[in-house]
Amino acid sequence: MPAIKTPYSVYEDRLASGEIRADADQAAAVNLLDDVFRMIVEARPQSFLGRLLKKQTVGRTAGIYMYGGVGRGKSMLMDLFFESLPETVNARRVHFHEFMIEIHDYIHEKRQAFKKSGVQSPDTYITQFVQEHCKDLRVLCFDEFHVTDVADAMLLGKLMSSFIERNIVVICTSNWVPDLLYEDGLQRGRFLPVIALIKARMYVVPLDGETDYRMQSLAGSGVYFYPLGAVADKKADELFRSLTNNEPIGADLFTVKGRDTTARQVANNVARFSFSELCEQPLGAEDYLTIAKRYDAIFIQGIPALGYDRRNETKRLMTLIDALYEQGTKLIVTADKPANQLYRGHDYEFEFQRTVSRLIEMQGEKYLEGR
């Protein structure tokens, strides 16, 4: 029988193949993932490393909470762990918000059913949910653990306690250190026990190096696709899926000086816009600066060839590129022409040269890896 591939051995293989680069934070995290993996698969007590971190015996370890900035490898390591688990281990990987929607839907259905006989407490519903939907589950991988909703916050204490009671190991990724979860949220005092539980029962592992590995791949794949058509759209679609890790796509509403603006396609701190949404609407420098600061990467799709008949759109595009460039925001474009042929007119013939220069620089490795 072939030896089981552990998270550590898979990580070493990827390092050797050049698929990933050595990273101290990742190495520390994968060692802990390997320890928890062996604890689950081999059903043995934790290693010296686990005991050193003052966790309890095998049956009382809640799991690992990995936190850090976008693109630091959190989801990659969680997936590496999840995919290494043998089929005999009942495991599930799910986006945190998707899981919470399932719980809220379950509670709503139960409350409707109990209308005539009296409504039970939320804790009772949580216990029932875990009993019914997490039966025989050994590992639960939560991607993007982030609490913004008071309803979620009020349920999480009982939920996490129920996981521990049933010996379910939880692997989390989050952009937030536990102490900053649900910061300034309504009734946050009632959420603090959840933070205490995470810190007491889980390995809290920082993944917060300077390198955004998500963005490094942009230099190799290209970020400016032309001419417009199916080929450019396909490349942009593939890149969007890669940068967002196929996370659920949602809308993001934000306000600039009392004006509401909606980014209709956002996931994993990456936003996708059409040229029409950004440059054919009455947006200005403040709107573009807000967008540039709000997202790590921006897609602008469908930039047409520009001329004298599109003066307003050309001016907005120049302002937008300036804002993205100054902020260091990564830019992915589909356009009708290459950058140096995008504008043909007299009104902005001189000014647009700066936009061309910036569009070209923004395709370069130095810019994409952080300037």
Task: Throw out a few tags for this protein.
2 domains, 371 residues, Rossmann fold, globular, alpha/beta, 11 strands, 15 helices, 46% helix, five-stranded parallel beta sheet, six-stranded mixed beta sheet
Describe the global form.
globular
* SS elements, strand count: 11
Q: Give the class-level CATH name of the largest domain.
A: Alpha Beta
Count the domains: 2
Q: Can you summarize the main beta sheet?
A: 6 strands, mixed
* Low-pLDDT segments, ≥5 res: 45-60
| SSE string, helices as H and strands as E | HHHEHEHHEHEHEHEHEEEHHEHEHH
What count of helical segments does DSSP give? 15
CATH homologous superfamily (4th level) name of the largest domain: P-loop containing nucleotide triphosphate hydrolases
Structural class: alpha/beta
Strand order of the largest sheet: 6-11-10-9-8-7
Task: Enter the CATH topology name of the largest domain.
Answer: Rossmann fold
What assembly state would you assign to the polypeptide chains in this entry?
Answer: single chain
Ends: how far apart? Answer: 49 Å
Q: In percent, how helical is the residue content?
A: 40-55%
Overall CATH architecture of the largest domain: 3-Layer(aba) Sandwich
Rg on CA atoms, Å: 24 Å
Mean of residue pLDDT values? 85
Strand content: 15-25%
